[in-house]
Amino acid sequence: MTGYVDVLGVGFGPGNIALAVALDEMDVHLAARYVERRSVPAWQPGMLLDGSDIQHNAARDLALPRNPRSRYTFFNYLFENDRLFEYLNLGLPYPFRKDYARYVTWVAEQFADRVDFGLEVAALRLTGSEGAGVEAELSDGRTVRARAAVVAPGRRPRIPEPFAGSTDDRIFHSSAYLQRRAVLDALPEPVIVVVGASQSAVELVLDLARSFPRARVVNVLREFGHRQKDLSPFTNEVYFPAFTDYYYDASEAAKADLDRQLRHTNYSASDPDVLQALYAQMYEDRLDDRERVRLLRHTRVTQVRAEPDGLRLQLTERHRGDATWLRADVVVLATGYHDLTDESGPELLPEVLAGIADLVGRTPSGRALVGRDYRLRPRPGAVLPPIYLNGLCETTHGLGDAGSFSLLSIRSATIATSLAKELSAAAGWPEQHEEAR
């Protein structure tokens, strides 16, 4: 069975949910269909920790910066669910992550008739006259043909050495934390290692210490200590649309310099509230003559051995070179996510685009060539239909594409506008249908 649509969305997380909203509200008359591997809409299900909050202004949601009158805003979600006044009365600087996850699901459910849940796009290839469209092979055997594709599978968890390739269920990434932590329930006094120095790492250490009072939690970090995020309002103008233009037009050397300057607005740094909570927790534990949380500074894991009674980790101090061994019951990797890289790295393009990678142009450093409108550009002499990357373009567009909601709605408008322009200029589907048959 083959279906035909104007736009195929690969993935239905926040990026393509925001796109669905934009296509609806901008009156772009294109038939869109989305394919999502999860069986139900969800956002960060593995990290909906008690008490955790989001890390951006609540108004920077799926729609409001693009259209303040949208019915798909976070505040309208609260209003329609009879919680607006209670939320306003909380006085919280940021919403609970659980609340924002429900908001994302609430919006997604309003487009559920356009989504195939519980399916994956196994492969994407070109079809039609001179590659005028795309054909997606779905995991249930069906195919879908489209005039354009918007690829938004989310960023892939980064699993560093020596954990890469491990299938041991005692080692898992933070993105699967809540689904996997049940392995600890049967252990009376577990030893849990959290690897990383991110916001997620601090949140996990706190949650583990609170959820498993008899556990020993060891946080392994390469740095001297946990760093506070750069929350300066001046620095946070990186989440303005104008900065996306500036970054996109910058040379690769300038981009590298900007990345160094701005790294701690988003990476290897945490919000003040969780840092204070962790420091206070460790201090209070010392008052009680116990050490439930231990930081191993300037340390990296250099070997891991899986044994029946636990995991053996070799820990190497980065400056002195001292190596010691630690037994652990579970290792949680708070090690972030992959960005798109050059051809020598792990991810030039999302895996679903492997079949067309040779047709995509390259920057001077070997990265995929992406237009300001997030559309992949072909190499010289090649032809590509409109294929867009939604939420994967930090290396070309800056921190607004680093997994934050801050510019989601603006990016969706850019892609929707480009789709309308590109597809209005292309041949209509009836002729392509006949050719495809």
From TrEMBL:
Top-level taxon: Bacteria
Family annotation (Gene3D superfamilies): FAD/NAD(P)-binding domain
Recorded catalytic activity of this chain's protein: L-lysine + NADPH + O2 = N(6)-hydroxy-L-lysine + NADP(+) + H2O
Molecular function via GO: L-lysine 6-monooxygenase (NADPH) activity
Cofactor names: FAD
EC id: 1.14.13.59
GO-annotated biological processes: intracellular iron ion homeostasis
Matches recorded under Pfam families: Lys_Orn_oxgnase
InterPro entries per record: FAD/NAD-bd_sf, Lys/Orn_oxygenase
Keywords: FAD, Flavoprotein, Monooxygenase, NADP, Oxidoreductase
UniProt pathway annotation: Siderophore biosynthesis
Homology family: Belongs to the lysine N(6)-hydroxylase/L-ornithine N(5)-oxygenase family.
Record's protein name: L-lysine N6-monooxygenase MbtG
